[in-house]
Amino acid sequence: MIAWRADKPSITFSTEASINLADDETLKQLLAQAGFTSVFIGIETPDENSLASCQKKQNLKRDLIGDVRRIIRAGLQVQGGFSSVLTPTCLPFSNNRSTSSKKVGL
User: Is the pLDDT confidence value at 86 over 50?
Assistant: First the structure.
C-alpha cells in the first residue's frame, strides 16, 4: 500500500483500532506511511469498573490520555468513542457518569 500510494499523496485513509495500537510503534509508523491520517478508538469510558463489567480488557489498566498522545505523535488523528459520557442511558456504561465526565474533562 505504501508503494502504491507513493505517487498519490492526496489519497488518505482512516481506520478503526483498539487503544492498544499505542503499544505498536511499527504498526503506527506503517499506518502513517501508508497514508492513514486518522483512527477511531473505542475508548468507551475512563471508569475501570464499567470497562471491567463490559469485558473491555484492552482498555483496562491503561493511561488512556498517554496512549492517545502516543498515537497522535505517530502522525495519526484520534477520534474517540465515549459511551458513558455521551450516552447516559447506555448500560452498563452508565455507572459513575459524573466521575467519567470529569476524567475526560467534560
Answer: no
- Alpha helices (H) along the chain: 2-5, 25-33, 48-53, 64-73, 83-86, 97-103
- Judge whether 50 and 92 are in contact, CB under 8 Å: yes
β-bridge mates for residue 82, sequence order? 44
Residues 81 and 43 sit within 8 Å (Cβ to Cβ): yes
| Better-predicted residue by pLDDT, 61 or 82 | 61
Arithmetic mean of pLDDT over the chain: 83
Q: Nearest 5°: CA angle at 48, between 42 and 52?
A: 80
- CA–CA distance, 55 with 57 (Å, rounded to integer): 5
Cα dihedral 54, 98, 105, 28, rounded to 10, equals 0
What's the average model confidence in pLDDT over 25-48? 93
36-44 β-sheet, strand order: 13-17, 36-44, 77-82
Give the position of cell 502504491. Answer: 4
With a CB cutoff of 8 Å and minimum separation 6, the contacts of 103 are 46, 47
